[in-house]
Every structure is written in structure tokens, then in C-alpha cells.
Amino acid sequence: MKTIVITGASRGIGREVCIKFAEQGHKVLAISRNTEPLIKLQTTSYYNLVPIELDISNLPQNWIHKITEHAPKIDFLLNNAAVLINKPFVETTLQDWKHIFQVNLFSVVQLIQGLLPYFSKPTHIVNISSMGGFQGSAKFKGLSAYSASKAAIANLTECLAEEFKYDRIYCNALALGAVQTEMLQEAFPDYTAPVNPVTMADFIVNFIQHGFEVMNGKIIPVSISTP
Ligand SMILES: NC(=O)c1ccc[n+]([C@@H]2O[C@H](COP(=O)([O-])OP(=O)(O)OC[C@H]3O[C@@H](n4cnc5c(N)ncnc54)[C@H](OP(=O)(O)O)[C@@H]3O)[C@@H](O)[C@H]2O)c1
After folding, report:
1. CATH code for 3-222?
2. Quick one: pLDDT band at residue 27, thresholds 50, 70, 90?
3. Is 11 helix (H, G, I), strand (E, B) or coil?
4. Quick one: pLDDT band at residue 172, thresholds 50, 70, 90?
5. pTM over 0.90
6. Span 164-189, mean pLDDT?
7. What is the CA(166)–ligand 1 centre distance, in A?
8. Measured distance CA(202)–CA(179) in Å, rounded
9. For the chain, how are helix, strand and coil distributed in percent, rounded to 5?
10. CA-84 nearest atom, ligand 1
11. Three-class SS string for 83-145?
12. Which of 25, 99, 179, 190 has the lowest tally of Cβ within 10 angstroms?
């Protein structure tokens, strides 16, 4: 049995990843602000799924304890939580940019630094990026802050692989294409994605468990559509 920490667990892709790991019998430490859907999952189906209520953009002083009290060692960390603002660049405020980067990048830095002493070796950190943050990909109006934050997390992934290369801590990023979730609806209200969260979760779950055996510091585009 492995232990995985997943952020952004209450809905969308993160929720499906939680369910798949829990079905496999692993311990799932599932983080989001809204824990109601996770408590329902725990009480009805998966005793091994532990809902943890945390706002990763404003972590309380005891946040490390709130996670590690449930498991002494962490095998996998999936940095999946993110926010998106769909607004033309000229209308974005500095506050918008700070908020997006707080959730999509700075919280990831905090989580990795804080949980470092609890990582088992090997550990696989998987950061969820986006095709919007992938160099040379098609770009879309209104998503500059979001896409820039996703480019930043991709670059951080490469840097961390270098920093941890002798520590058996592996770090890769998945640059996802469109997946039919509430976030996608906010970005592209009239668009239907060809991939659903269950299918994407299948890929992610397998990647977390095995990707580090063959790659480190890589940014993998996972997309069959534009966007
Ligand atoms: N869907 C797509 O087409 C697509 C494409 C490319 C990349 N991605 C990436 O895939 C990941 C998952 O996206 P999704 O579509 O599943 O998004 P989603 O449905 O909007 O889910 C986002 C999750 O993040 C959590 N979250 C947001 N802010 C948080 C905070 N401050 N603290 C803790 N949790 C927070 C939300 O939970 P609470 O609100 O309960 O806190 C929610 O569970 C994201 O990194 C996204 O950028 C998605």
C-alpha cells in the first residue's frame, strides 16, 4: 500500500484520481477547501480516503501536521489544484496575477518544501501543467495569467529534478489538453472536450506509479485536441 497526497481533490480530475487510488487500496490524503464530497466518498465507499480541508493559497501554521498525522511517509504527491481566470490580458489586475500564481505555483513550492522530510525514497512528485503553458502550443485569449502559471510549474519541475537528482525524489509534469470539467467550462464555455476526467485520471494514476521509473524532469504533453 502506498500513500499519495492529492491537491484539488473535491471535483474534476483530482476527484477521479482519488477514487482510482482508493479503489486500488492505497491511502489517499485528499486536499481541497470543500471536503463535503470527499467525506461522502469516505463514508460510503473508501475508508482509506482521508479528506483534508486546506486552502493551499493560505496554508495555516499546522498544515504539515494536518497531512502527516495520517501517514508517516508519502510516496506520491500530485499537485493538481489550480485556478483559472478567463479575462483579456489588459483587464487583468495585479491581484488576479498574484492569486493565480499563489494557487498554481507558490502553494506547490510550499507543499514540496514542507513535505520533503516525509517523502519515502523513491518519491514521485507529479505537477499538473497545461498545454496552455507548453512552449510553442496554441494560445488562447483570456488565459495569459493561467497559462503563464502553468509554464512556471513546468519549469519548476525541470529545476526540481536537478535539485533532487541524488535523493531518489523524481519530479515530472503533465501538460494536459482539454478535459471536460468545470474549469474547462469556465475557459471555453461553448466547447466540449473529447476526454473525460475518468479517462484522464486513468492515465495519471498509472503515470504517477510508473512514470518515474523511466523519466525525470520531463514535461509530457497529454492531449488529443486543440484546445
Ligand atoms: N480541465 C482541463 O481541460 C484542463 C486542461 C489542462 C490542465 N488542467 C489542469 O488540471 C488540473 C485539474 O483541473 P480540473 O479541470 O479538474 O479543475 P477543477 O474541476 O476546477 O478542480 C480544481 C480543484 O482544485 C481545487 N482548488 C482550487 N483552489 C484551491 C485552493 N486554494 N486550495 C485547495 N484546493 C483548491 C478545487 O477544490 P475546492 O474548490 O474544493 O478547494 C478543485 O478540487 C488543474 O491543475 C488544471 O489546471 C485542466
Report:
1. 3.40.50.720
2. very high
3. coil
4. very high
5. yes
6. 95
7. 31
8. 13
9. 45, 20, 35
10. 47
11. CCCCCCHHHCCHHHHHHHHHHHHHHHHHHHHHHHHHEEEEEEEEEEEEHHHCCCCCCCCCCHH
12. 190
